[in-house]
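Hello,

Our lab assistant flagged a job as stuck in the queue for most of the afternoon. It eventually completed. Since we weren't sure the result was trustworthy after the delay, we are filing this so someone can double-check. Below is the sequence as submitted and the structure that was eventually returned. Let us know if re-running is recommended.
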Amino acid sequence: MPPCANRRHRGVVRLAAEMRALRCAFALAAVAALPGCGEDDDRVNRERPAAAINVTAAIIDGRIVVSPDTFGAGLIRLIVTNQTDSEQAVTLETEEVGGSSGGITQTSDPIGPASTTTLEADVREGDYAIHTADGDIRPASVKVGAPRRSAQDELLQP
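-- returned structure --
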């Protein structure tokens, strides 16, 4: 190899090494700048609400049966099955009269015979009734206690 080619080769190798070092320096600077991106001193880490629970109810034998009938305040999914021969709609409402804050009244869509529906509600502490418009079906009572624990540290929560 001629002597000038060897010098050229060393110059190219040196230039390539300098370019790699420069790229590494830029990459390190970019990584160091990342923690500052989007930082907001006003961020508040609020607790998650309690995880929703399923409460089941069945309209059967002239009454409404609920399980569980006692639980803590928070989001519930009331899953109702109609085991009668006629269409029914279920109403979940607070049993407070003249309370300091407005109560809850939620009514499901009509449930056909041998069908099921779901009603979601965010219930607070107090007594609730679950009933239908049919006077021959005895309503159920539900007692809601203190708010349930936060789902903050529970895995696989939405």
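-- support follow-up --
The delay was a queue issue, not a problem with the job. The result is valid. Residues 21 and 27 are 10 Å apart (CA to CA). The chain has a mean pLDDT of 83.
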